[in-house]
Amino acid sequence: MATEIKVPSLGESISEATVAKWLKRPGEPVAIDEPVAELETDKVTLEVYAPAAGTLAEILAAEGANVPVGAVLGRIADGAEPAAPHPSPLSASGEREGPAKREGEGQNALERSGPAVRKLIEESGLDTARIAPTGPGGRISKADVIAARALPPSAPPADAGDGREVRVRMTRLRRRIAERLKAAQNTAAMLTTFNEIDMTEAIALRERYRGSFEQKHGVRLGFMSIFVKAAIVALRELPAVNAEIDGEDIVYKNHYDIGVAVGAEQGLVVPVVRDADRMSFAEIEQTIAALAHKAREGKLAIEDLSGGTFTITNGGVYGSLMSTPILNPPQSGILGMHKIERRPVAVGDNVEIRPMMYVALSYDHRIIDGREAVTFLVRIKECVEEPSRIMFDI
Questions:
Q1: DSSP strands (E only) in the chain
Q2: How confident is the model at residue 90, as a pLDDT?
Q3: For this structure, is 369 an active site residue?
Q4: Exactly one of 249, 349, 369, 393 is catalytic; which is it?
Q5: 224 and 142 in one domain?
Q6: Catalytic: 304?
Q7: Fewer CB within 10 Å, N or C, the chain?
Q8: From the candidates 33, 275, 293, 365, which is the catalytic residue?
Q9: Domain count for the chain
Q10: What is the mean pLDDT of each run of 10 residues along the chain (394 residues)?
């Protein structure tokens, strides 16, 4: 008896995913709760686990296929039963066969197929070498054509053309990032204001307590916890920066769920540090470290990414000296940190070399006035330049 592998619930408001990768091939044994496939949603990549032990007998959704919640991805057979043909062109060794290897087979399968299938292939513009026939007598079925259309486009051979361009399909996550960023520009009256921060005291504080902090709490003391705490001080004074527009209403948030942008392999993600105002410096650093690790491993859940009220992004880790960050809708503000650069500055009547950082606040001018935006950055500057302000809440 076969057990179906189905698309699990993907979280609120997400009804569809893309099959990113199969971790098992037909004929391979699987253990119960073992990951067999990876799905990519608009926000995260998640693993699909085997609902039973046995042998992966059949794959029904090829890599690149879009599948709704509850759809059957494949089937697991009890014991080591023969596997059904895979809907994508795989060789006996498990590698995809190139067009040259399958050209004759594809043509013969096409000739054996019915007129309706041949018409569908012609309309789809598919190369028969990309279609794995699973019909009776080696014929190509309609399901085979649909499965082939769902496959991601293959990269051109090394000797095709001059090799100066390679076209690959955008991942679902990358498409969603593009849509959200463009929507933010189209919807919000976005403006950016800048300031600079003398990081001397923050660096001294970090150096003074780095060893004992890491020994006691098991996590390094970074600048992000200082900026998160400084942002909360500023958000409390200027609640519009922590608010959002909903239709004709302004929704003011009396909680501080701070999104921290993390660059992962699959794209930029913004996991949320919830109720950051109730956390100590150590708890903030521990939470950020745990979320960053999950992001790099592709283990973030939907709840890790939803519900933020304000975002902080640090382009300085990549060497950025200045940038204008784009809003993370429906939030109304985002703070950009940048590279710490030693440069000459006026200190009283003297010129000194100080570690300086440019900071940027991008904000929605529909809800936040220029005075509020400038004041917000001034509060950030005051708190980071004098960290005792944060500790004593002044």
A1: 2-6, 16-22, 29-30, 35-40, 45-49, 54-59, 66-68, 72-77, 190-198, 244-246, 249-251, 258-260, 262-264, 267-269, 272-273, 310-314, 333-337, 340-347, 350-364
A2: 41
A3: yes
A4: 369
A5: no
A6: no
A7: N
A8: 365
A9: 2
A10: 85 77 88 88 80 89 86 82 45 41 51 67 71 70 68 48 74 78 87 96 92 92 94 96 94 96 80 94 94 84 88 92 92 96 94 97 96 96 89 63
